[in-house]
Amino acid sequence: MSTPFVLQEAHGFEYIAEGPETARPDVVLLHGMLGDLSNWYTTITCLAEHGFRVYAPVLPVYNLPMLQTNVDGLVAYVSDFIDRLHLRPTVLVGNSLGGHVALLLALAQPEDVAALVLAGASGIYEVDMGTSTLRRRDREFIRERAARTFYDPAHATDELVDEMLALVNNRKRALRLLKMARSAQSETVTESLSRIDAPTLLIWGANDEITPPDVAHEFQSRLGNAELEFIDRCGHAPMIEHPGSFNDITLNFLQRTVGSPAGTPVDPSC
Q: Measured between alpha carbons, how far is 238 from 99 in angstroms, rounded to an integer?
């Protein structure tokens, strides 16, 4: 998919960077295992227009060396990205696996995380999406798997199904997908969440079938400083399915926790 933003490269990383430089913490957006930068386009625009400096790195879910293809490998990658670009402290915004990575970074480097925004984060449990039994050439099976991500199955477009088919028919990428999925299931953070003090916003689809609402409630009960917002008629990726609501809730949270950038009027909507 073409990007409306300039894709930058530095220190071996590919990323989007938008918004003015400010004294406020930078915002780093982390996509999920089957996601990409396009998941964040409206969020990047909204936050940048409201004066936040926003970064969205390409996560090498399928490109890490096999021995490093796990959640810890992604945590190390994002930590290095933040360090090389001098982004500390940061607000970490993560969907699904990206949320899992954000939580592990907050546990490992609490002084570097100003706040967290998590949507459908893994780390407690996820419903098995059948990644261990993907039938490579069964288009309808792939479409059904993709549709489970959303409340409205219309979001499982032909383009998305084509991308997933290409992925599972690439042996090296498919093997890494399976390895990453198994790592996400085993590397749980449940018993460690009470150690995270950073202000945390949980934005959850009320109809999420992958990390159901009870996962969101458990995150809220175990995190020390968390608030929870549900979006109705919404599945596992609220920033895609209901970008307006997702962005408004996120913007309001950031303005309350890390402050509205100097000179920017407080506006709760995008």
A: 13
Mean pLDDT computed over 165-169:
84
Q: What's the pLDDT at 5? A: 95
Confidence check: pLDDT of 38 > 50 = yes
What pLDDT is recorded for position 267?
A: 60
Q: Which residues contact 257 (CB under 8 A, 6 or more apart)?
A: 114, 115, 199
Strand residue runs (E) in the chain? 8-10, 13-18, 26-30, 54-57, 90-95, 113-119, 200-205, 226-231
**Alpha carbon distance 56, 38 (integer Å):** 10
Pairing of the two strands 200-205 and 113-119:
parallel
Answering whether pTM is above 0.85, one says yes
Tell whether omega for the bond before 110 is within 30 degrees of 0, i.e. cis: no
Picking from 141, 132, 97, 140, the residue whose alpha carbon sits closest to that of residue 236 is: 97
Collapsed DSSP state (helix, strand, coil) of residue 93: strand
Residue-range domain boundaries for the chain: 8-257
Write down the pLDDT at residue 132. Answer: 47
Rounded Cα gap, residues 202 and 220, in angstroms: 8
For β-strands 13-18 and 8-10, DSSP reports them as antiparallel
Question: The tokens of 106 are what?
Answer: 């907050």
HSE, side-chain direction, 13 A CA sphere, residue 183: 21
Which residue intervals of the chain are DSSP H helices?
41-49, 71-84, 97-108, 139-147, 158-168, 171-186, 213-222, 238-241, 243-257
**CATH classification of 8-257 is 3.40.50.1820, yes or no?**
yes
Q: In 3D, which of 83, 85, 130 has the Cα closest to residue 109?
A: 83
Strands 226-231 and 200-205: parallel
Spatial distance between the Cα atoms of 129 and 149, rounded to a whole number of angstroms: 9
